[in-house]
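Task card 7
Instruction: Convert sequence to structure tokens.
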Amino acid sequence: MSTDRSSSHSEPSQTEDASRLSLLKQQLDERLALPRASGWRILPLEWRYDFALLFDQVRGWMANIDRSYNTRSK
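Output:
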């Protein structure tokens, strides 16, 4: 049972991920800079950024593991 990820859907490129993370970080910084920034309104934006960053790191780690398993086919 094999899975071919490339044929079913395309995954975002590293530059797309980086730009998405950069945009979330910019939005968070702008919201934090407001004089009356409410913690409850900032919290979901912080969580979105944190999870995006976490999953970006996990994606890179899994790609590294996948590369190490593909050494026999070369």
